[in-house]
Amino acid sequence: MRYNERELLSLARQPAEKAAEILMRVPKKGSVLKKRLVKLVVNFLFYFRTDEAEPIGALLLEHCRITKEEENVFSISFIEEPERKYCFECDSEEQCQEWIEALKRASYEFMRRSLIFYRNEIQKMTGKDPLEQYGISEEARFQLGTRKQ
Amino acid sequence: MKLNERSVAHYATCDSPADHAGFLRKRVERHHHHAHHHHATSYQRRWFVLKGNLLFYFEERESREPVGLVVLEGCTVELCEAAEEFAFAIRFDDAGARAYVLVADGQAAMEAWVKALSRASFDYMRLVVRELEKQLEEACKSLAACRKSPRRSSSSGRKRHLSNPALLPLQEKPPPPLPPRRRSAASSATGSPAPGLSPAMPESPVSPETACFSKLHSWYGQEIAALRREWQERQKRGHP
């Protein structure tokens, strides 16, 4: 599958929502924990060798599951391959929880659900559709009840 | 750079609804232009699927895997003065970046695509969510305020809204501009927040950063259930 790697690399250089040096292990046979600079930008998680400017890789964070593993450890897996886990070992339980919360909210799909929720609540309370002023109230992606979660 | 391509392709083809889809003709880009070489521009018809900030394209509508992906974050979408009618382009800030020139079937299709793609970025979605979050907070505050003040009997209960003048209607704000494009690292490093938005959202019970959905839902759900009961009671009184 072709993709615009250049733009993705540019995105990796943007200010991050969250960044830290974390031990990371990829779901490959024989792979071990390695220290990586992990950077969350929009719905992508980039990971770098700590002394390099260009990321080793990127994970699109849609349809993924963030799981607390043992102490200080969380994993990212994807729904079509739940056993293939990217593992992250943090410095502390606190850091681990912060990353779990941040990553759970990092998908476009999560934001879409938030938007639909707020829209619905505002509409119930005030009778007005808050999206009308944006001219996007008719767009399918913001409709209530028509989306499979 | 590695990408979790299998998962990305799965996201493209799974049954989560697309934000927009349709056939477009995609201009084939040549990597080298010889000064004296005259080559005709060619286009390939592809099935395009927009999901969030990702634009996938497939060889056929029924294809099981996308042939390509355009990550849309930081792009601009412009009408195109190509030789083709109904052409538009997806461009990026990067000096050397190529543009994606796409051709729709007609005026309506072109406009729908340009509109959908212009608003496809994660940044834009986040902006809208934060705006609505604030509006919900304001609506809740107004509701709490109007409960305390004496209520006038409503004259017309046809519209499903609180006729109490103490309840402020949603302020008629102009729609926020599209957020500034994420600039490439070569130019300004920090994207400035859109005017009118504070850069750091204060922690609030309604902030997605602090509350989880189910808590939020039940918190507001109680308010709304009470509100509905009151409204229904007023309706019964007002309409024999």
TrEMBL record, chain A:
Pfam families: PH (PF00169). InterPro entries: Boi1/Boi2-like (IPR045188), PH-like_dom_sf (IPR011993), PH_domain (IPR001849). Gene3D superfamilies: Pleckstrin-homology domain (PH domain)/Phosphotyrosine-binding domain (PTB). SMART domains: PH. Residues 15-108 form the PH domain. GO terms for cellular component: cytosol; early endosome; recycling endosome; trans-Golgi network. GO terms for biological process: endosome organization; receptor recycling; retrograde transport, endosome to Golgi. PANTHER family: PLECKSTRIN HOMOLOGY DOMAIN-CONTAINING FAMILY J MEMBER 1, SESQUIPEDALIAN. This is Pleckstrin homology domain-containing family J member 1. It comes from Spizaetus tyrannus (black hawk-eagle).
From TrEMBL, chain B:
Belongs to the sesquipedalian family. Residues 17-122 form the PH domain. Keywords: Cytoplasmic vesicle, Endosome, Golgi apparatus, Phosphoprotein. The lineage of its organism: Eukaryota, Metazoa, Chordata, Craniata, Vertebrata. Residues 185-200 have a biased composition (Low complexity). This is Sesquipedalian. Plays a role in endocytic trafficking. Required for receptor recycling from endosomes, both to the trans-Golgi network and the plasma membrane. CDD domains: PH_Ses. It is found in: Early endosome; Recycling endosome; Golgi apparatus, trans-Golgi network; Cytoplasmic vesicle, Clathrin-coated vesicle. InterPro entries: Boi1/Boi2-like, PH-like_dom_sf, PH_domain. GO terms for biological process: endosome organization; receptor recycling; retrograde transport, endosome to Golgi. SUPFAM superfamilies: PH domain-like. Residues 149-209 are annotated as: Disordered. SMART domains: PH (SM00233). It comes from the Eukaryota. GO terms for cellular component: clathrin-coated vesicle; cytosol; early endosome; recycling endosome; trans-Golgi network. Its main location: other.
